[in-house]
Amino acid sequence: MAKKIDTDILWSDRKRGLFGLPWSFTKYVLTEEKLLITRGVLRQTEDEIRLYRIMDLSLNRSLFDRIDGVGTIHCCSADRSAPEFDIKRVRNPRHVDLRSGGKAAHRPGRHRPREHDAQPQ
User: Fold this and answer.
1) Percent helix / strand / coil, the chain, rounded to 5
2) Which residues are within 8 A (CB) of 109 and not within 5 positions of it... i.e. 6 or more apart?
3) Is the model's pLDDT at 101 over the cut of 90?
4) Which of 51, 72, 73, 76 could join 87 via S-S bond, C-beta 3.0 to 4.6 A?
5) How far is residue 63's CA from residue 81's CA, in Å, rounded to a whole number?
């Protein structure tokens, strides 16, 4: 039985193998608030990373990755369980926006300007 996700899915993909085919048991699901990484068949492991904790992103693509149309996104986060992790060999990695989502754009503890603050007086 699949686990129900409470928000809309913005993007999902599987880790791709040879020739960019999705022959893997690693699945990535991006919602407005979090990234879910599910690994395994017999013993599944699911990691949940809140998007507001992601601090830095980098894209790595070898020559063979570019030929296959895949890439690996390296993420640095403030999450204690996963301070650094990779979203490995996904199709169209430039289209994956981990900074998207209405709630993800506002990080707790950061001042969010109100409309009347932005207007000149």
Assistant:
1) 20, 40, 40
2) none
3) no
4) 73
5) 32
